[in-house]
Automatic annotation (TrEMBL), chain A:
Superkingdom, taxonomy of origin: Bacteria
Protein name: NAD(P)/FAD-dependent oxidoreductase
Pfam assignment, any one: Fer2_BFD
Species per Swiss-Prot/TrEMBL record: Tepidibacter hydrothermalis
InterPro entries: BFD-like_2Fe2S-bd_dom, BFD-like_2Fe2S-bd_dom_sf, FAD-dep_OxRdtase, FAD/NAD-bd_sf, G3P_Oxidase/Oxidoreductase
PANTHER family recorded: GLYCEROL 3-PHOSPHATE OXIDASE, GLYCEROL-3-PHOSPHATE DEHYDROGENASE
Domain BFD-like [2Fe-2S]-binding span(s) in chain numbering: 398-452
CDD domains: GlpA-like_Fer2_BFD-like
Annotated ranges, domain FAD dependent oxidoreductase: 3-350
Coiled coil residues, start to end: none
From TrEMBL, chain B:
Protein origin, superkingdom: Bacteria
Species this protein is from: Tepidibacter hydrothermalis
Coiled-coil region list: none
The keyword Oxidoreductase is assigned to this record: yes
TM helices/strands, residue ranges: none
Identification of the protein by name: FAD-dependent oxidoreductase
Domain FAD/NAD(P)-binding: 4-298
Keyword list, A-Z: Oxidoreductase
UniProt keyword Cell wall biogenesis/degradation present: no
Length: 485, 421
């Protein structure tokens, strides 16, 4: 019998699980995917918003600013890339200047610190590559960029280090309520628990309706992006948004924590909660839209395109509450933007709800907020590099030529708590294949290392989801000789 | 700090030929650094034949061709380090490199020869829409899996792009029992060698669709199919021409790009057309004492041409060490004229030309019955009749040293002219 089951191992589920691991609770996090962060968390803008955008009085408004303020600390504890680079909302005409002023005022009410409306000259000075058309911008220095899946994996790992369990490839098929709590039926056996956090992203509606009548609906909103090669991120120094107009929110141009450039997203409401495919017309659309911000994006350096789904609720705000019909079942639903930014605060808020139900929780004395630091070889000085290879020669072998990722880093990413077991899982943890060759050279080597370390047949190593097989069979020459009678 | 007269970055065909030639020209203290587990580079995975017709006058496979150079290198006692990666080329030609045995190394080089080869353009680079399932491979990655690792990557295959590796993989996959349904090429002509079109597609009844592009990849986890459509003159898809192929694998053969991250970080000037370093007649880059050769400079279609170019780089690196290269004096620029996409080398110092000046170039379209004309400051110095020209087949021109008489600001141009009937 568990005290708490967290359904969904995205950024929200992992944040809550890590928070739960601070207390004397038997906790497990489950996910239908074969890796942490495999839904919305792996495909979004990776922005930690300052918090001026959310409407005053909403949960989004309250939790975004609070979450933003918590980011630096948690990323430091967990050794995760986070950069507070600040954001601009640019205006190209008077009408857009007005909407920037509105944002500024909203930001003041949401207690966003140090915002400033910049003149055309100030914008040019801070961002020389932006379009000449820009007449001013709202500057929010507290906005930042993060690596969302890196954070989510780190949270899961730290939670596991502190005693929480992780069960992947576990899909919830039904939930039964009884006097003691709940029995969750999964493809991977039944799980008994007293309390449940429903953090299932686009599927929170379906999970909720397993225990209670419909109280909200969730639909997926798809956004598409372009990622450009490393080095291009220096075209801009801040996260650059466009002022919202009656035609929508515009598109953003931002560096990523690893020095790539990211542009997107668009917004397209869909029915299909699995549809993360990209389309040429939408990619062309975001590229065209980005030209309003800057014409200097070198699209010929695009290394990949992707699409992600936001879980949009019909209620227009985050839904973080105990179900009225199902005691001890807490929904954390409708976590669309600024969900990533608010995530640390959402976790705290959610734990408070649990404390409201069961009373004050006992802190675990042995809780360790830090995880074992990650060696990122290329970020070391020459002396440190020499030292690291001396200790473990596997750091002297480069597997990924584009990003210069060593075998040591890949082996480490496999063997940590919440370690990677797929080619993309390793890519998200230590970046081989993230570069311009997109795994062309390192893919076979990463598979070889995965198979060796996990003692698996290389043919069973998948790209990402469990059906994403890569190799079909041995070649004629490599086939074991058939035994004939 | 380790010290060598010449350090060669890359032990593929270019690096091997350059190192051997440098040694033959009197430099003893040479180190070849190779990032893979064996010497020979991509040739090791090219188990088909057709290599060496120019250099050895016989048909060799890739590994056989490589082996000839590897044996020679070893016999000459040239040092090499395998499984070793160059991280950076710093000031004063100091190289930082790592491997598992020596750890972190700083290596001071009298001269450096860059021969890192090239890499393949990927799906991301050409923005193919759809999901991102497994089963999309560059042709070279598939080639490595099949020929070196011993695994098949799929059963029903569509190939996008008609580069040579794609064509060769069409045949290879067929021989391994896979079904290759089609090769689609965006341009109205193939990017591969004619002999590969014949021997790899026609001989196996694999259809080649010119002026076609990939519209979409179906399948979320593994490729389930692809949609291909015809394109108009502006390379835009023509509505209604879409064809669906039920397949589990998509191979991409959509071009190669010289791999110049180390060069770029070292501050070496690159040519935006070739994506390789700007070089002079000695294959020297914009940084003195740093030479480059092979696919890192521009993508070649035959390894024999790589060998020839690399010998030039090796010989000149040796001349540089022996202080036989003159750095002052007049410099001419080469400029592609009508019908020519680029010319290598980009600069010429006539004093340093050894016998003939060899210009390599590619044309920008398929042409028939043309004259290829070389001019020096507008004055014709050479004219050649060409029956057939195609972007997939590199052209070269030899100019005699005595024809290279020029003053300041000289430009050598090559252009195509229709042959009068």
């Amino acid at each position: 019998m568990y005290d708490v089951v967290v359904i969904g191992a995205g950024i929200i589920g992992t944040f809550i699980t890590r928070e739960l691991s601070k207390f004397d609770l038997k906790t497990i996090i489950i996910d239908k995917e074969n890796d942490i962060a495999n839904g919305t968390t792996k495909a979004n803008s990776a922005i930690v918003h300052a918090g001026y955008d959310a409407k005053v009085g909403t949960l989004k408004g309250k939790l975004n600013a609070k979450g933003n303020a918590m980011y630096a600390h948690v990323c430091e504890e967990l050794d995760v890339h986070f950069k507070k680079i600040g954001s601009f909302v640019i205006a190209t005409n008077e009408e857009e200047m007005d909407s920037i002023k509105d944002l500024y005022e909203r930001g003041c009410k949401n207690n966003i610190p140090d915002m400033k409306i910049l003149s055309q000259e100030e914008v040019r000075e801070m961002e020389p590559n932006l379009s000449e058309e820009i007449i001013g911008a709202l500057y929010a220095p507290t906005a930042g960029i993060v690596s969302p899946w890196e954070l989510s994996v780190a949270l899961a790992e730290n939670a596991a280090d502190n005693g929480a369990e992780i069960k992947l490839e576990t899909e919830v098929l039904g939930i039964e309520k009884n006097e003691k709590g709940y029995v969750i039926h999964t493809n991977n056996g039944d799980i008994k628990t007293k309390y449940i956090f429903n953090c299932a992203g686009v599927y929170t509606q379906e999970i909720n309706e397993m225990v209670a009548p419909r109280s909200f609906t969730i639909h997926p909103r798809r956004g598409q992006y372009n990622v450009l090669d490393k080095g291009t991120g220096s075209i801009v120094n801040h996260v650059i948004f466009q002022a919202p107009t009656k035609f929508g929110k515009g598109t953003l141009v931002t560096p990523t924590v690893h020095g790539n450039l990211l542009i997107g997203p668009d917004a397209e409401d869909l029915e299909d909660k699995e549809n993360t495919s990209t389309t040429s017309d939408r990619i062309a659309f975001i590229q065209e839209k980005s030209r309003k911000t800057t014409t200097k994006v070198p699209f010929n350096k695009t290394i990949t395109s992707f699409a992600g789904l936001r879980a949009v609720s019909n209620l227009g705000d985050f839904i973080i509450e105990e179900s009225k019909e199902a005691k001890g079942f807490i929904n954390v639903a409708g976590i669309e933007s600024p969900g990533l930014s608010a995530a640390p605060a959402i976790a705290e808020y959610a734990i408070n709800i649990l404390e409201g139900i069961i009373g004050e929780l006992n802190k675990r004395k042995e809780f360790n907020p830090r995880r074992k630091p990650v060696i990122r070889f290329m970020e070391l000085t020459d002396e440190e590099k020499a030292e690291v290879i001396k200790k473990d020669p596997r750091y002297g072998r480069i597997i990924c030529r584009c990003e210069n990722i060593t075998e040591g880093e890949i082996v480490d990413a496999i063997h940590r708590n919440a370690g990677g077991r797929t080619v993309d899982g390793i890519k998200r943890r230590s970046r081989p294949g993230m570069g311009r060759c997109q795994g062309g050279f390192c893919g076979p080597r990463v598979m070889e290392i995965l198979a060796r370390e996990l003692k698996m047949d290389i043919k069973d190593i998948v790209k990402d989801n469990k059906e994403a097989y890569i190799l079909t069979e041995e070649t004629k020459q490599n086939k074991p000789e058939e035994v004939t009678a | 700090m380790l010290k060598y007269d010449i350090v060669v970055v890359g032990g593929g065909p270019a690096g091997l030929a350059a190192a051997i030639e440098a040694k033959k020209n009197g430099v003893d203290n040479i180190l070849v650094i190779e990032r893979d587990r064996e010497l020979g580079g991509i040739l090791q995975q090219c188990i088909h034949n057709g290599f060496g017709l120019h250099v050895f006058k016989e048909e060799l496979t890739g590994p056989e061709y490589a082996e000839k150079f590897i044996v020679e290198l070893k016999e000459m006692g040239i040092e090499y380090k395998l499984d070793t990666m160059v991280l950076e080329i710093g000031e004063e030609r100091v190289i930082s490199a790592i491997n598992t045995e020596d750890g972190f190394m700083s290596i001071k080089a009298g001269a450096i020869i860059l021969s890192m080869g090239c890499r393949e353009r990927t799906r991301g680079a050409i923005s193919i829409p759809g999901y991102r399932p497994a089963g999309v491979f560059t042709a070279g990655t598939a080639q490595r899996f099949v020929n070196m690792e011993g695994y098949m990557v799929g059963k029903k295959v569509v190939i996008l792009g008609s580069g040579d590796i794609g064509l060769i993989m069409a045949r290879r996959m067929t021989l391994e029992g896979a079904q290759v349904l089609a090769v689609a090429e965006l341009m109205p002509f193939s990017g591969g060698l004619t002999r590969n079109i014949v021997q790899c597609l026609e001989d196996y009844d694999i259809p080649l669709y010119l002026s076609h592009t990939l519209m979409e990849i179906k399948g979320k986890d593994r490729v389930e199919g692809v949609v291909i459509a015809e394109v108009d003159k502006n390379r835009k898809p023509i509505k209604g021409t879409e064809k669906y192929y039920d397949c589990d694998t998509l191979l991409l053969s959509v071009g190669l790009i010289p791999e110049n991250e180390i060069s770029k970080n070292a501050g070496i000037k690159l040519d935006p057309i070739t994506s390789g370093p700007i070089v002079n007649e000695s294959m020297e880059t914009s940084i003195e004492g740093v030479f480059a050769c092979g696919n890192v400079v521009h993508v070649h279609d035959l390894v024999d041409f790589v060998t020839a170019e690399s010998k030039r780089a090796g010989k000149n690196a040796a001349r540089y060490i022996k202080k036989e290269i003159k750095c002052e004096g007049k410099i001419a620029k080469t400029e592609p004229g009508d019908g020519i996409r680029y010319i290598v080398p980009h600069m010429v110092r006539p004093e340093n030309v050894d016998g003939t000046l060899d210009l390599s170039m590619r044309v920008d379209n398929v042409y028939k019955d043309m004259n290829m004309i070389v001019k020096l400051n507008g004055k014709e110095i050479k004219r050649m009749k060409k029956k057939h020209l195609a972007p997939g087949e590199m052209e070269s021109v030899k100019i005699k040293k005595e024809d290279l008489v020029f003053k300041e600001d000289t430009v050598i141009t090559v252009h195509l002219e229709k042959e009068e009937a």
